[in-house]
Amino acid sequence: MTALDRRTLLGATAALTLLPRTLAAQWEQEKRDAGHLAKALSSGHAAGKPVLVLRVPEERANKFARGVLFGALLHNASDALLEALPLAEVVCATRTELAQLHPHTREQPEVFAWLVETPGAPVAVREVLAEMPAMPRFDWPGEPLAEERRQVRDWVRPLERALLAALVADTPRVHQRAAAVNASGRFRAPARSRLLSEPCEAEIEDVLAGAALLYRASLGVESETSPHRAALRNATRQHLLEATVAGSRWASHEGCGVEVDGDGPPGVECGMGYVPAAARRLLWFYTEQRGR
């Protein structure tokens, strides 16, 4: 275990044991929408979209490190991933939560996400696998910003590749998803024509709903010159990075403390090592408490 791994583990433990009562109580008592996962699956089915379930660890001690990893993945995503993510509803959930809706969901450590293909029957749950990469070592005062970001991108690249393979590597599946969007009835001919002809002028809700149509229209076109891809990238930034990912909240950490968006000062003061700017945003998972 590297020095940074130890600091990460100790920091995660400290964040769990030293949180002031207000924030600790919030983490325990703040409830996700009771049907957050079912709601995402229902929305995906109605829209003809799959649901990408980012796996939240069952063990509380592992949630912090996973939140840092997913935060780094999303905030350092390539254009290709920013363009692919709107093709699915994105939600955070544990395997236990998914298994309550789909009992045959297997326990497999390498699974960091599931892609639930809601259009069609029966519903198919596809595992998204990647070996969990070890966090790179960052030493104070750190590398130049460009070098730090390169290292963070290298760190999350195995996960990004796996997500791209699941979402868009299979061109026939992209066509199937576009057909499912058409079949959903969300876009009638005039609205569909407007979306495809002026994607950057469309409302974000329309871009998200018609993501498969936009992606299909961009196939074979360079990403830099495609207005359809530009609209998809912008939708990801607005919907996931600037808003929230269902089942979590955005938070920040800079080596001493975690500050959950909208909750004031950091919840813990401790030495957790140097954290590069490219890895300071994380997903803060909170667990639904049933039976209370």
Per-chain topology:
Blueprint: H1 3-17, H2 21-29, H3 36-47, E1 51-55, H4 60-75, H5 79-84, E2 89-93, H6 95-101, E3 111-117, E4 124-129, H7 145-167, H8 171-184, H9 189-197, H10 204-209, H11 211-218, H12 227-241, E5 248-253, E6 258-260, E7 281-285
Parallel strand pairs: 1-2
Antiparallel strand pairs: 1-3, 3-4, 5-6, 5-7
- Poorly predicted spans: 1-34, 288-292
Whole-number count of domains: 1
Overall residue-averaged pLDDT value: 81
- Order of strands side by side in the largest beta sheet? 2-1-3-4
Order of helices and strands: HHHEHHEHEEHHHHHHEEE
Major beta sheet summary: 4 strands, mixed
SS content category = alpha+beta
Helicity, in percent? 40-55%
What is the number of helical segments per DSSP (H or I, 4+ residues)?
12
Which band does the percent of strand residues land in? Answer: 5-15%
Shape: globular
C-alpha-based Rg, rounded: 19 Å
CA(first)-CA(last) distance: 39 Å
> How many β-strands, per DSSP?
7
Structural description of this entry:
The chain has 292 residues and is an alpha+beta fold. The chain has one domain. Helices cover 48% and strands 13% of the residues. The protein has helices spanning 3-17, 21-29, 36-47, 60-75, 79-84, 95-101, 145-167, 171-184, 189-197, 204-209, 211-218, 227-241, and strands at residues 51-55, 89-93, 111-117, 124-129, 248-253, 258-260, 281-285. The strands form two sheets. A four-stranded mixed sheet has the order 2-1-3-4. It starts with a helix and ends in a 7-residue tail after the last strand.
